[in-house]
Amino acid sequence: MTTSKLAAAPRGTARSGTLMTISAMLFVQLGLAISTGLFEQLGPLGTGWIRLVFAAALVLVIVRPRRSWFTRSSFLACVVLGAATSGMTLLFTLAIDRIPLGTAAALEFLGPLAVAVLRSRGRALLWPLIAAVGVVLLTEPWTGNIDPLGVLYALAAAACWAVYILCTQRVGDELSGVRGLAVSIPVAAVIASLIAAPSTIPLLTWEAALAGLGLAVLLPTVPFMLEIQALRRITAAAYGTLTSLEPAVALVIGLLLLHQVPGILPVVGLALVIVAGIGVERSAGRAAPPSAPTHDDPGSGAREATLERGELRTGEPA
């Protein structure tokens, strides 16, 4: 192989990883936007529940978990991860029922942003300050037009996302590949069922069930698989920087599909949150480069890449 071909191969790999990351973000936000179509029939809690139930079924079929994979500590970590996933999913669906998708996504992004700030090296107080200004501009509290309960739901989802990130690292330390999902997603579905199933099951129709199955494929199944492949192709810094743009993707999807037209100040606020996310990612401490995956553990490279990056996003509830 010539030198030019050797140089072209990494560029092509990085390009495909970038496209996969962007595609994953699009699938996430499309799934969320389309989910609102079921709100009238099932309500936001019911919509989040049916998505988690079908996602759990898909994960169990794909992963086929074995008891021997788990120790007591790894299993408990997966259970906590599932609880965080359930909270994040249900709270965010409640949020987007009350506030625009772009605003909710930016507020939820404060969770991983806070984790990244705490993990960054040196002084990083500038970025939370910029993010705080962005949130004020996003919500425009002086107008009285923002739904305070919607903001509260989004911030609670942000807290769940922060816990999700911390648990993901713990699970990634102890389990390879996607094995943790075989526990966390079913646990999330069980918790959501306790909350939403009694009021939602009487409202279910075959059409709503099929729509829920399609949404489960759209979010989180396809995005997670895309992200796993992307992490094998691009660096942690590149991944973290790309996913910092997700609130902007949410804004565009909300505009195109939900006809949510933002004002100038919310757009500026969203831009500030994105800048803060990119700034934290670029200033965060880096771990050692991940080792190449072994034949015994084909998921190890992706797992270590997940731990290496700034953890601004592991994905929507996986």
Structural class by helix and strand composition = mainly alpha
Helical region count? 13
Radius of gyration: 19 Å
Q: What does the main sheet amount to?
A: none
The total count of strands amounts to: 0
Distance between the termini: 39 Å
How many domains in all? 1
Mean pLDDT: 81
**What proportion strand?**
under 5%
Shape: globular
Helix content: over 70%
Output the helix-strand order.
HHHHHHHHHHHHH
User: Which residues sit in consecutive blocks of at least 5 with pLDDT less than 50?
Assistant: 1-9, 285-318
How does this structure look, described?
The protein is globular. It has 318 residues and is mainly alpha-helical. The chain has 13 helices and no strands. Mean pLDDT is 81; it is low at 1-9 and 285-318. The termini are far apart. The chain has one domain. Helix 2 runs antiparallel to helix 3.
SSE inventory with pairings:
Elements: H1 3-35, H2 39-63, H3 72-96, H4 101-108, H5 110-119, H6 126-139, H7 148-174, H8 181-200, H9 206-230, H10 236-243, H11 246-258, H12 264-283, H13 300-308
Helix pairs in contact: 1-9, 1-10, 1-11, 2-3, 2-8, 2-9, 3-7, 3-8, 4-7, 4-11, 5-7, 5-12, 6-12, 10-12
